[in-house]
Amino acid sequence: MRAFLNLIRWHNLIIVIITMVLMRYAVIEPLISKISIILENGTGEQMPMILQLPWYDFIILVAATVCITAGGYVINDYFDIKTDLINRGEVIVGTKIPRRRAMMWHNILNIIGVPSGFYISWRAGYFWLGTLFLVVSGLLYFYSASYKRQFLIGNVIVALLTAMVPMLVVIYEWPALYRFYELNAVVVPNFNLIFYWVGGFALFAFLTTLTREIVKDIEDFEGDLAYGRNTVPVIVGILTSKITAVCLIIITIAALYLVWYLFINDKITLIYLSLCIVLPLLLAIYQLITSKNKRQLHGASRLMKVVMLAGVFYAVLVKIILTWNLF
Predict the structure, then answer these.
(1) Which of 15, 45, 265, 275 has the fewest CB within 10 Å, making it most exposed?
(2) C-alpha span between 221 and 87 (Å, rounded)
């Protein structure tokens, strides 16, 4: 059981669950509660908007996402046995879990995830959206089999799929909101605000994931070079890869402060961004510049993961700020 949990990266799956739950209940719910509407068959008084996607449908959405993600981790380890032996010295597939059983788990997880995705899409009124889960499942397979061996393509795919996790919540909540309030509200409210907020989290996830993927490729340089993978460090060199990662971090920091200045502009967020996100990013830059071995590079990679978690948990602060009107 422990080997299986490690194979599907259970800790990363928990982060996926937390991300989706926070996007729904800590960002979208308090945001729409600030939008007042008047129901046609009501008393004529203004009342706050509420979530319309049933909680049990949301659970199916989360489960579908988790299954597809877990399947991606399994197939990734299936194709990475040789390089992982060089880069990490140990593997799960082929030792603790037979290759055939790993492929079986990959198939089972996708068989659960893809139909669940189509079901929740049908429930949302857009059955064709289910193809999104099918496409993501295929992308994860081909990423492991081919794309991650190609220059930058694999990194961008992983970053895009990570950014899609928070966006899935708003994509499936919006149809339920629109249908209900189009039929029952005197004036249909504007839902753009929730797309902007969740889109900000998604952009942050994209930039930090892309940076971390490049750092991990630098860390895995030896194994990738030995097996002819055309990763960023193999093609452009370790120094240029480090410069690229540092530039992405600087872009991330600049974007954070720009968004804060233009759209948020409250002291609580500024303090949180500076201490919990920007400071670790600056430390990651220092470790990247001074790193001379895998251990130091792994430290920079772990710092990027801390930053990603801090970005996710900013949603809790958003809920506090909106609930208590602290902006």
Answers:
(1) 45
(2) 8
The strand pairing partners of 37, in sequence order, are: 47
55-79 helix and 131-145 helix, angle to the nearest 10 degrees:
20
Q: What does the angle CA 216 – CA 249 – CA 21 come to, to the nearest 5 degrees? A: 80
Name the amino acid, one letter, at 95: T
Integer-rounded Cα radius of gyration of the chain:
21
- String of b and e for 213-222 (b: at least 16 CB within 10 Å)? bbbbbbbbbe
**Secondary structure class of 326 (helix, strand, coil):** coil
Q: Give the Cα separation of 39 and 270 in Å (integer).
A: 37
Q: Where are the domains of the chain?
A: 2-323
The end-to-end CA distance of the chain, in Å, is 46
The residue assigned the tokens 């830059």 is 285
**Integer Cα distance of 73 and 10 in angstroms:** 10
| pTM of the predicted model over 0.70 | yes
CA dihedral sign of residues 125, 126, 132, 134? positive
Is the separation of the CB atoms in 13 and 69 below 8 Å?
yes
Q: How many CB atoms lie within 10 A of CB 3?
A: 11
Q: What percent of the chain has pLDDT over 90?
A: 75
In whole angstroms, what is the distance from residue 270 CA to residue 172 CA? Answer: 31
Closest to 61 (Cα-Cα) out of 155, 173, 140, 156: 173
Q: Where are the alpha helices (DSSP H) in 80-98?
A: 81-87
Contact 255, 203 (CB under 8 A): yes
Q: pLDDT digits over 188-206, tens only?
A: 888 889 999 999 999 999 9
